[in-house]
Design brief:
single chain, 250 residues, mainly alpha, 0% strand
């Protein structure tokens, strides 16, 4: 039985192999919310597009190799939030290279699917890429540019200097960059603000409006997870949209 909060555990030198938030840790995250500049925001329109796509309906528990990791902080809810974030980021930055919606969603849903723990788990990006490759061949997962999806997953857990000169990155740059940023946007789930998204490690920089949404998405869905086995993302996102009415726009 967990006696220390996740925040206390993550401040220790040796971190738990499997991690889940608790009320004390979520309260700490809320109290330390960054000051985001969200004036002139138009993101609710983009959020509504995401609610029509419903990326959470694409997820299946069988995507994950470890059923224990599936339930933890790098599991199902993290994957779904990254899928939401990558769609919003794509709509926001409007890259010249068009990417299929399914490719965006599946790159997010599978990026951590091979994880066996919630620490660094070195090599999980490459393993997840191989796992999706085997599943895509044997299932009805519809992906338009499988090579780019596999590349984005394989590189997502590495620093840019380790792969940005490789041809596979050059060929799949846009999706690779989108996934890394979308993954970073869900780092607000950790009760350590020194682990939160840092623009200097990214090629695509999200707006403060998107960061604010990602923060609220992380905290609100993690909160619901404490009391419900499954998070209702329509409910969580509707609550976030309603809160935009309180934000002054000019």
């Amino acid at each position: 039985m967990q006696t220390k909060s996740l925040r206390d555990q993550l401040l220790e030198k040796v971190k738990p192999e499997h991690q889940n938030n608790d009320q004390e840790s979520l309260d700490w995250i809320r109290l330390n919310k960054p000051n985001f500049d969200v004036l002139n925001s138009k993101i609710p329109e983009e959020i509504k597009r995401v609610t029509e796509i419903k990326p959470w309906d694409y997820f299946k528990d069988t995507f994950y190799f470890s059923k224990r990791t599936l339930r933890c902080i790098h599991g199902k809810n993290h994957a779904i939030r990254v899928a939401i974030n990558i769609l919003l980021l794509y709509f926001e930055c409007r890259p010249e290279k068009e990417i299929a919606i399914n490719d965006l969603i599946y790159s997010a849903l599978f990026h951590d699917c091979s994880r066996i723990n919630d620490n660094k788990d070195i090599g999980h990006g490459e393993r997840s890429s191989e796992l999706l490759k085997s599943m895509a061949v044997a299932s009805e997962i519809e992906i338009k540019d499988l090579k780019s999806v596999l590349n984005s997953i394989g590189f997502h857990d590495l620093n840019y200097e380790k792969f940005e000169s490789k041809p596979n990155y050059t060929q799949s740059k846009t999706l690779c960059d989108l996934l890394k940023t979308a993954d970073g946007l869900d780092r607000y789930r950790f009760p350590r603000n020194d682990w939160w998204i840092d623009d200097k490690y990214l090629k695509i920089i999200p707006s403060d409006t998107l960061k604010n949404f990602a923060f609220n998405l992380s905290v609100n869905s993690e909160q619901e997870k404490l009391t419900n086995s499954d998070v209702n993302y329509n409910k969580v996102i509707t609550k976030i949209i309603d809160n935009y009415s309180e934000i002054p726009h000019v």
